[in-house]
Hints:
Layout: H1 2-5, H2 9-15, H3 19-36, H4 38-41, H5 49-63, H6 67-79, H7 83-105, H8 115-138, H9 144-160
Amino acid sequence: VAAACGLSVGSIYVHFKSKDEILHAAIRRSNQRMESGEFFRQFGDPGDFLKMMERLLRYFDQMGDDPVHSADLEIMLLARHDATLRKEIEINQKARFDFIRECASLIPGAKRLDKATLDAFAATVVALMTDADQRALAGIDVQRALKMTAIRNLMKALLSGI
């Protein structure tokens, strides 16, 4: 971390008391990007749900080889024993759900759906994205085409009930 910031190890500890504090600060920054929507804006117009999901899945495909992204799995394991870290991961997961739900609410016809139905749809899409993320972390195929087919079929089923 120090080398990436262009600092000495000692300089890092002027700002942070421990490695845990550095980790928590990095996750808080990530959460701020998620909650503000900054992270998701890179995937395009939220009004084009399918295109956004395709781009997000493509992102997971590419992240499988990124060493920073692979640290996510280790962070998840650390969270089992760190209540603060667990809370920060919960914030991150909520931001992911809120974003997907917001995009889903922009699907033509979605305004006529009740909250529970839209929430269930968003939760299902989040589960597909989480699976893609975990697959990327493990270095295995994200199954982008299969997930997009599932999302399209979910949308058809959702909208046919209107």
